[in-house]
Write a structure and sequence with these properties.
The complex is a heterotrimer of chains A (375), B (446) and C (595).
Chain A (H helix, E strand, L loop, with lengths): L5 E3 L2 E12 L5 E2 L6 E2 L4 E7 L3 E5 H5 L17 E2 L4 E4 L10 E3 L4 E6 L5 E5 L3 E6 L4 E7 L3 E12 L2 E3 L2 E8 L21 E3 L3 E2 L1 H10 L3 E7 L1 H8 L16 E8 L6 H9 L4 E5 L12 E5 L8 E2 L4 E3 L6 E4 L8 E6 L5 E2 L5 E2 L1 E6 L4 E5 L3 E3 L3
Parallel strand pairs in A: 2-23, 16-17, 17-19, 18-19, 19-20
Antiparallel strand pairs in A: 1-24, 2-14, 3-5, 4-13, 5-12, 6-11, 7-10, 8-9, 10-11, 13-14, 14-22, 15-20, 16-21, 21-22, 25-26, 25-31, 26-29, 27-28, 29-30
Chain B lengths: L1 H4 L2 H9 L5 H35 L19 E6 L8 E6 L9 E8 L17 E7 L4 E4 L7 E10 L2 E2 L3 E2 L4 E2 L10 H22 L10 H16 L3 E4 L8 H20 L3 E5 L2 H17 L11 E3 L4 H15 L3 E5 L5 H11 L3 E6 L5 H7 L2 E4 L1 H11 L2 H33 L4 H13 L2
Chain C lengths: L1 E7 L3 E10 L2 E11 L9 H16 L24 E6 L5 E7 L5 H11 L2 E8 L6 H10 L4 E4 L9 H13 L11 E5 L6 H7 L5 E5 L13 H15 L6 H7 L5 E2 H16 L3 E6 L3 E8 L2 E8 L7 H8 L1 H5 L8 H13 L8 H25 L33 E5 L1 H4 L4 H12 L3 E8 L4 H10 L1 H12 E9 L9 E9 L2 E9 L3 E4 L6 E8 L13 E6 L4 E5 L11 H14 L5
Parallel strand pairs in C: 1-4, 4-10, 5-6, 5-7, 7-8, 8-9, 11-14, 14-15, 16-22
Antiparallel strand pairs in C: 1-2, 2-3, 11-12, 12-13, 15-16, 17-18, 17-20, 19-22, 20-21
Helix pairs in contact in C: 2-6, 3-4, 8-15, 9-12, 12-14, 15-16
The chains are: A mainly beta (375), B alpha/beta (446), C alpha/beta (595).
């Protein structure tokens, strides 16, 4: 039997975190190897090709596309503004000439003699890539981007919405098991990464958005509240590009669920430091989980982590989290690993394991329904 | 009235379509029953009536074959105006004297009171006596109709036997038929109109409120996209012929509605559309319709007015042009929507031979078989008229269509009732059934 | 003869061993290992070798050489190695394509059919009448990152203007391929042959690898998908696969071209439908997508319902169908808020499996809705050709049928094949059968089977090399016959008789009785048993010979037996919650679904 990997989320007090910062299309890199950068530093920039606007000029002039060329007033490469005449028909005895006016601003890219279509290319749009985490540039990929490295406290969440953001880490509430309520958020949290305990409530989220919190990190969220924030029911867990003004990140899952105590305490220990958060989640082939990185300075810890999914092998004593009802969210450690498949309550046969819960109780769950916790 | 409301083409329409609404199916079945029963019932009634007339024509004689003495006159006579009418009807009733058995009939006569006082009759200021009715001796009343409203009349009645006539009995005073605003006999018809209007209005309101109105799919209209798409893929044009009649013909108007939809689809697909017309006014209307469609589709730049042109008013000159054009240009889709006559088959056959998808629509029942045989899809009669509602999908039009359908269903039910009554009246000639039948006939004005 | 076949899925690589014994091909062993396309391994052959190693351990034959390659037999007496190695692949998200045509319902649809039939995922279809403005189309093309583009349009000798217009939109948009960098985007042109020269000029610039094949719609009356499909396969191997880690090596190992997994499944279903002369519907419900295949009257169709799946897309199924539609299949008390959170938790942790009966019931309810929605999509796609001239006689005046009607007809459907986790791993066969019946609503007599271990992809490729072996293994080892569904078309009245039935085995009556409207009944009829079933439907109900007409057919037994379904078609559940639950409970009990 081949080795079966059990997925897990990385929660580690100190790791060397490397992040590749790449441009979508080739451009200029603004930093060099060895530079120290902050999260906001622009490391690379370029211009994206402008939008394309096709205009059917032959149709506008009621001429055959093949006869269009001599009538064109603008040539390929010319700059055009909205309203500029692109071509003019001959008319009758020099009278009743019609003009085809441009409906876009940009550069005339091409004129087709087979279809009579003129292509206008809009202005280029600048694209900037920032460092995202404070650290050191360790590699420059020519024309594409850089690799930033830093030692950091690193926590992977299970699910998030909203993109990259950064700010000082602040703790709301007192315990890992306390819901994040409206009163936990105050005006001083503007632009901060706010860590709550258990579930983020609808009131808490609303207040955080009003105040201008950069990111909220909690144990859980209710499906209905997520729907309210997004304005639609999320069908597939591919997120990161939402424009909701805040990044939300949950470490455990949906529903009433407390943040793992260790995660909470790690974050608590670094309250006040600058943290970087990315809510982008992609649960597909090439899984991507949301993450929190708190740079800790440059001293190297040896272990290098570049993001992505983590997985490990189950052994007796391995700390695990049960990730499916009826014991959803409970933490414990593996206490037995029976070889033979067992029949579950649902009637299916599956390989199982026994988990000793923190409460001391022992439960049997399918191996597929646990994930590793810890480093 | 039946013929007006339940058009033949409607019958054909509902009967032919397996997808018709359930009630449409039922009503169409009933209508066919009605027609079958109706013809049967009518012939039965006529023969009975004939035999009655025969028996009545014989004159009874006494045992010796001698004549009997003249009958006695009626003892009294009254005349009164019939209420809720146009003033042209007066009812005359009288009381026969005892021992009148030898008489065979009553003769009722009238005499108008002339304003200038001239007249040759027996009463002062009376006109000549004219016959109102001859009624069997058993009857005690008669109705004088077709009188001049607001004119006054004297009436008299005479009993007649083979031996001679009785003395006349004349009304004491003149009676005037008054003109009424509302004609009572038409009340049921008025109710029927109210009912039909209520149906239509109710459906329109319901449609406006957003109640879903199911209209049976009409394959020919759904196929417009197919036809236009074919033209687009094959890089050929679309030919649309809106009939050979002018704008005063309702079918031309319906055809132009369809043209609006076809040209809108053509604009979306960016296909060329050609509309030859045989009337100048139709050309103008067609240009309007096509241009509006191109605007609505956001492709105003692609609209070409020259493709919509007037050819000639001459029927066969027009046909010669269109079929010649079809053979040369080979359009991939041909639409014939409007009023067609002899040219229908010429056009449709030419279109078929060049391999075009053809969609036709006309209410000319004599041309339908040609279109059906030669075209891919045909809108038949009422379908063609309903096309604008179907295509627009506007609540007002759809609601009105549904309301009219319901009214037609009601008419069909009335027909069924009439046929059943008429049939039963033949089986049981007396009693309430013939009376009900007579009432129904009166209501429907036949 | 010894054949090794592998299927490299996005998470696991499955290997099977097929051996010829006494002149009959049988599948003997199977092995499984994680797929190794992504980092840190980045070499698909490692996973293939691991899975074949498992075969080696189980079978006792030496199949993997020390250098990790598959050993070939020199002759039939050689104890080690195999004679034939074949593989399919859907790793790395499969083959993602963008297609374009002139009219969406005509050439663009044919292009989509060609791409789907070849096993691709169609990311978008661009057409001149797709109601998008040209600049919106360009925007869309730029957003997509396809592996390949298929452009069609115009019949031969037909339109050139619009197909060139489309090409002129694609060329400046320069869609970026997924593999980035130096990769030239393969573009296949299968449109009007008169437009070829211009198309070649338009795409002469850098960034495109243009290849031209025969028009896939030479006339509107005829669809010619073969050349385009084959070219998609070739390009898939030459360009797409060549850029995936390790595939260059795998290609040299294989005796037949590596096929995209769904393409191979389509091939085997077509082979079966043709061989047995039947109409088939096949479904593969996955975590993210649902693939639907059908062969009706010899015409093959495939659709992929992206975002209808049981794990990654489970939340989308609930959103699209509505929680009410899902819960109508549930006979237990469930809290809706709790369920919604559970659905989302399954979405973010897609690998978990239901542990309790309640969770299983819910997951199977979701699967019914996912299958139902996917089947609706399939039906609207699997149509006859549109834009075709109709031939009519005067007699047709009363029955004008539209072109482009759906080919899928549940009454003429003979066989349904279920595969995919939730269907093939259901603890009880009865559950699989009922899920299929509820979702597909088969009419008349329909055989239900499931793919035992998702072997269809392997057999699809095998069919191209050794059709006999593929057929034999398909019939004997791949398909597990569950039984038959017998259901009348038409509306039944609750509490009134729906149909009478008599099941005979060699003239001996095995079972008979009467089905009441809304009732379901199961007649156990074991594997290998053959009998004749006579049904006499009530007036207005159709079993295949017309309303009210009795039907007698031969039936084969299966793991479930014969399911007599008196619920009528289309299937309607009572609207009142109490009645509905009572009905569902009766059905579950009658079929012994959760015993």
């Amino acid at each position: 039997m081949a080795k079966a990997y059990t997925p897990g989320l990385k929660v580690t007090a100190r790791t060397t975190y490397r992040v590749r910062r790449l441009l979508p299309v080739p451009g200029d890199v603004r930093v060099k190897v060895g530079d120290s950068v902050s999260a906001e530093t622009v490391v690379a920039e370029t211009f994206l090709e402008g939008d394309v606007f096709p205009i059917k000029v032959a149709g506008m002039l009621s001429v055959n596309p093949a006869e269009l060329m001599p009538l064109m007033l603008k040539r390929a490469g010319d700059t055009v503004q909205v309203g500029d005449a692109l071509a003019r028909s001959k008319g009758i005895f020099g009278m009743m000439k019609t003009e085809a006016k441009s409906t876009a601003t940009g550069t005339l890219e091409s004129v087709s003699e087979s279809t009579g279509m003129v292509i206008i290319r809009g202005a280029k749009t600048p694209v900037q890539v920032r460092a995202y985490v404070a650290g050191k540039i360790i590699e420059v990929i020519a024309n594409e981007g850089v690799v930033v490295e830093t030692d950091a406290l690193f926590v992977q969440g299970i699910f998030g919405v909203g993109g990259e953001t950064w700010g000082p880490l602040m703790i709301a509430g007192k315990s890992h098991a306390e819901d994040l309520l409206e009163e936990h958020i105050n005006a001083s949290m503007k632009g901060a990464i706010v860590v709550g305990g258990a579930r983020m409530t609808a009131g808490g989220i609303r207040r955080a958005r009003e105040v201008g919190v950069a990111a909220l990190i909690c144990g859980g969220i209710d499906d209905a509240d997520l729907r309210d924030v997004l304005g639609y029911d999320l069908g597939v867990a591919v997120t990161g590009s939402e424009k909701i003004g805040i990044t939300l990140l949950v470490t455990e899952g949906f529903g009433d669920i407390a943040m793992a105590k260790r995660t909470f305490q790690l974050l608590l220990a670094h309250a006040g430091k600058m943290a970087s958060v990315n809510g982008a989640t992609q649960i597909r082939a090439g899984v991507m989980r949301p993450e929190i990185a708190v740079p800790l300075g440059q001293a190297s810890s040896g272990e290098i982590f570049t993001g992505g999914a983590t997985a490990g092998i189950l052994n007796i004593g391995t700390p695990v989290r049960i990730i499916r009802d009826p014991h959803f969210g409970l933490l414990g450690s593996v206490s037995a690993l029976p070889e033979q498949p067992a029949v579950l309550g649902s009637g299916s046969k599956a390989r199982v394991l026994e988990v000793a819960l923190e409460s001391g109780q022992r439960v049997i769950v399918p191996r597929a329904n646990v994930e590793l916790v810890g480093d | 009235m039946f013929a007006r409301i339940v058009k033949w083409d409607y019958l054909a329409l509902v009967a032919r379509n397996a997808n018709a609404n359930r009630w449409q199916k039922i009503s169409s079945a009933l209508i066919f029953c009605v027609i079958a029963l109706g013809s049967f019932g009518a012939s039965g009634v006529e023969s009975k009536v004939d035999s009655k007339v025969d028996s009545r024509g014989k004159i009874p004689l006494n045992e010796l074959g001698q004549e009997v003495i003249a009958p006695p006159a009626a003892t009294s006579i009254t005349a009164e105006d019939v209420a809720w009418d146009a003033g042209g009807v007066i009812k005359i009733s009288w009381q026969p004297a005892a021992g009148i058995t030898s008489a065979t009939k009553w003769i009722v006569e009238r005499s108008e009171v002339l304003v200038d006082g001239q007249g040759s009759g027996q009463g002062s200021g009376q006109g000549p006596w004219t016959l109102v009715a001859e009624v069997p001796i058993e009857e005690k009343y008669a109705v004088a109709s077709k009188l001049s409203p607001e004119a006054s009349y004297f009436f008299r009645v005479t009993a007649v036997s083979p031996n001679g006539s009785s003395a006349v009995t004349t009304t004491k005073s003149a009676v005037t038929g008054h003109w009424n605003f509302f004609i009572g006999a038409k009340l049921p018809l008025f109710c029927a109109i109210l009912l039909v209007s209520a149906c239509v209005i109710n459906f329109i309101l319901a449609a406006r409120r957003g109640r879903p109105m199911k209209v049976r799919r009409i394959a020919a209209l759904e196929a417009i996209k197919d036809a236009v798409g074919r033209a687009t893929e094959m890089g050929r044009s679309i030919l649309f012929v809106p009939g050979i009649q002018d704008m005063d013909n309702i079918q031309t108007v319906a055809g132009l509605t369809v043209l609006g939809n076809v040209s809108r689809t053509a604009a979306e697909y960016d296909a060329a559309i050609e509309v030859p017309t045989s009337r100048s006014l139709v050309m103008e209307a067609a240009r309007e319709a096509v241009q509006a469609s191109y605007l609505a589709a956001g492709r105003a730049d692609a609209y070409n007015a020259d493709a919509i042109r007037y050819i000639t008013d001459e029927q066969f000159g027009f046909v010669a042009y269109v079929s010649g054009r079809m053979v040369r240009e080979k359009p991939a889709a041909c639409f014939y929507m409007g009023c067609f006559f002899a040219e229908s088959l010429i056009l449709a056959e030419t279109g078929n031979s060049i391999g075009a998808i053809q969609i036709a629509g006309t209410a000319e029942s004599s041309q339908l078989p040609f279109f059906v045989a030669a075209c891919d899809y045909t809108l038949i009669g009422e379908e063609f008229m309903a096309a604008s509602a179907y295509l627009s999908g506007e609540p007002d039009q759809i609601g009105s269509l549904k309301g009219q359908d319901l009214a037609k269903a009601i008419a069909a039910i009335v027909i069924v009732i009439g046929v059943v009554l008429a049939t039963m009246a033949v089986i049981a000639p007396s009693g309430p059934i013939p009376a009900a039948l007579a009432w129904l006939k009166g209501v429907l004005g036949s | 003869m010894r054949i090794v076949a592998t299927d490299c899925g996005s998470t696991t690589t499955k290997a099977i061993l097929i051996e010829e014994k006494d002149g009959v091909f049988r599948q003997t062993f199977r092995g499984e290992a994680p797929t190794t396309v992504e980092e840190p391994f980045a070499d698909v052959t490692l996973g293939v070798a691991n899975s074949v190693t498992e075969l080696q351990e189980l079978s006792g034959y030496k199949l993997i050489a020390d250098d990790g390659t598959i050993i070939r037999r020199k002759n039939a007496s050689d104890p080690d190695g195999c004679d034939l190695y074949i593989s399919t692949s859907s790793a790395g998200g499969g083959l993602q394509m963008m297609v374009a045509g002139v009219v969406r319902e005509m050439t663009a649809e044919s292009a989509k059919r060609a791409a789907l039939g070849a096993g691709a995922i169609v990311m978008d279809t661009i057409a001149s009448n797709d109601r998008r403005k040209p600049h919106e189309q360009i925007q869309r093309i730029r957003e997509l990152r396809p592996d390949m583009v298929l452009v069609s349009g115009g019949t031969d000798g037909g339109d050139t203007k619009k197909v060139i217009e489309i090409a002129e939109l694609i060329a400046p948009a320069r869609p970026r391929p997924r593999f980035g960098g130096e990769y030239k985007l393969p573009l296949i042109f299968a449109g009007n042959k008169e437009a070829r020269e211009t198309i070649e000029r338009v795409f002469s610039g850098e960034g495109f690898a243009l290849s031209v094949v025969d028009n896939l719609r030479p006339t509107l009356e005829r669809e010619n998908l073969g050349p385009a499909r084959e070219r998609i396969h070739d390009v898939f191997l030459e360009h797409v696969m060549a850029h995936a880690p390790g595939y260059d090596k795998l290609m040299t190992w294989a005796n037949a071209p590596i096929m995209p997994t769904p393409g191979a499944v389509g091939d085997i279903l077509q082979t079966i439908a043709k061989g047995r002369g039947i109409n088939v519907v096949g479904v593969d419900i996955g975590g993210a997508t649902t693939d639907m295949f059908s062969v009706f009257g010899g015409v093959f169709n495939r659709t992929v319902s992206a975002n209808l799946g049981m794990s990654y897309s489970i939340s989308n199924v609930c959103a699209e169908a509505g929680m009410d539609s899902v819960l109508r299949w549930v006979h237990l008390d469930m809290d809706e808020r709790e369920l919604r959170n559970r659905v989302k938790n399954k979405m973010i942790r897609p690998t978990t499996i239901p542990q309790t009966l309640e969770a299983l019931v819910f997951e199977q309810a979701v699967s019914r809705e996912a299958l139902r929605l996917a089947y609706i999509q399939h039906k609207s796609f699997a149509t006859t050709l549109k834009g075709v001239q109709q031939q009519r006689t005067v007699g047709d005046a009363f029955s004008q049928k539209e072109a482009g009607g759906s080919l899928v007809d549940n009454m003429s459907l003979d066989l349904m094949v279920a595969s995919g986790g939730v269907l093939s791993h259901a603890p009880r066969m009865e559950q699989t059968a009922l899920m299929m019946i509820d979702a597909f609503e088969p009419e008349g007599f329909t055989e239900i089977a499931k793919d035992s271990i998702f072997m269809m992809p392997h057999l699809g490729v095998l069919a191209s090399v050794n059709p006999r072996a593929a057929m034999e293994v398909f019939e004997k080892d791949c398909l597990v016959v569950l039984g038959w569904c017998v259901a009348p078309r038409g509306e039944v009245r609750a509490g009134r008789p729906a149909f009478d039935f008599t099941l005979r085995r060699a003239n001996e009556v095995v079972a008979q009785g009467q089905l009441i409207g809304g009732e379901m009944r199961l007649v156990r009829f074991g594997h290998g048993e053959v009998g004749t079933l006579e049904v006499r439907p009530e007036r207005g109900l159709d079993m295949g010979s017309g309303p009210g007409k009795p039907v007698t057919r031969e039936v084969r037994g299966g793991a479930v037996g014969i399911v007599l379904d008196g619920r009528g078609r289309p299937l309607k559940l009572p609207t009142s919650a109490v009645e509905r639950r009572a009905c569902v409970e009766q059905w579950l009990k009658a079929l012994e679904v959760y015993e």
